[in-house]
């Protein structure tokens, strides 16, 4: 695990992104995961809530869920989500009894202007296998995939393939899947499809979203 430094200004954030982006490793997934975690964040006043839900894989049965609440340390700036949500997500992950093999993020992996979306950023800090599964594109160009579940097209940026535009449910908007750290693109897509049931968003991420919102209501 890398010693974490959370900046409060954009200049320092840019320096950290540049340093950490060189540490991202896109490599084949070596072992079949047993536990997959999903994380999400919600905001309430001056606080941010980080929720983590851990599932048995591939059964997708809920195993453990935790949350943490911290102050907001960084402003909302597109491309710098990890500095706003990262601290509370790491705090929540630290309280888990289970050590997940893979962590899913509602955000980008390497499909990011600097190659360091929140999934890659937190993956490098924790040295964990991570995947980004975002609802919208941050960077890159693509062709619209087919309308059936599993249809996909490549997301490309500056001449490189940085992700996949994946249809997870028939005739609904696709999601944007990119490897975060210690996993490759094909394995990332396979895991996301395996974690997706009858809804557009993978089940573990949907659960983490609900948990973060439940805690937000309690905090309000």
How does this model look, in words?
- Helix 2 (81-94) packs across helix 3 (118-126).
- Strands 3-2-1-4-5-8-7-6 form an 8-stranded mixed β-sheet, with helices on both faces.
- By secondary structure, the chain is α+β, with helices and mostly antiparallel strands.
- The longest helix is centred in the C-terminal third of the chain and has 17 residues, at 203-219.
- The termini are far apart.
- The protein has one domain (30-219): archaeoglobus fulgidus dsm 4304 fold (2-Layer Sandwich), CATH 3.30.2170.
- It has helices at residues 10-21, 81-94, 118-126, 185-194, 203-219; strands at 35-44, 47-56, 62-71, 102-105, 129-134, 152-157, 160-166, 175-181.
Number of helix segments? 5
Order of helices and strands: HEEEHEHEEEEHH
- Overall pLDDT: 95
Count of individual domains = 1
Number of strands: 8
CATH homologous superfamily heading: archaeoglobus fulgidus dsm 4304 superfamily
Strand order of the largest sheet: 3-2-1-4-5-8-7-6
Just give the CATH class.
Alpha Beta
Q: Would you identify the regions where 5 or more consecutive residues have pLDDT less than 50?
A: none
The structure class reads alpha+beta
Which overall shape is indicated by the principal axes computed on the Cα atoms?
globular
């Amino acid at each position: 695990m890398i010693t974490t430094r959370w900046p409060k200004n954009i200049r320092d954030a840019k320096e950290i992104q540049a340093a950490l982006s060189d540490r991202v490793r896109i490599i084949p997934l070596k072992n079949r995961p047993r536990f997959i975690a999903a994380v999400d964040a919600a905001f309430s006043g001056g606080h941010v809530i980080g929720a983590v839900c851990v599932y048995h894989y591939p059964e997708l049965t809920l195993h453990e869920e935790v949350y943490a609440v911290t102050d907001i340390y960084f402003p909302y700036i597109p491309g710098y989500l990890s500095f706003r949500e990262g601290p509370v997500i790491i705090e929540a992950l630290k309280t888990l009894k289970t050590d997940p093999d893979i962590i899913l993020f509602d955000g980008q992996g390497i499909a990011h202007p600097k190659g360091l979306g929140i999934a890659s950023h937190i993956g490098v800090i924790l040295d964990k296998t991570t995947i980004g599964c975002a609802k919208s594109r941050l960077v890159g160009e693509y062709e619209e995939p087919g309308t059936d579940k599993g249809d996909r097209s490549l997301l490309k940026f500056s001449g490189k393939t940085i992700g996949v535009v994946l249809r997870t449910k028939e005739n609904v908007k696709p999601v944007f899947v990119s490897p975060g750290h210690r996993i490759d693109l094909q394995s990332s897509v396979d895991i996301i499809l395996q974690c997706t049931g009858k809804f557009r968003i993978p089940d573990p991420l949907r659960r983490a979203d609900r948990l973060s919102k439940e805690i937000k209501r309690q905090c309000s």
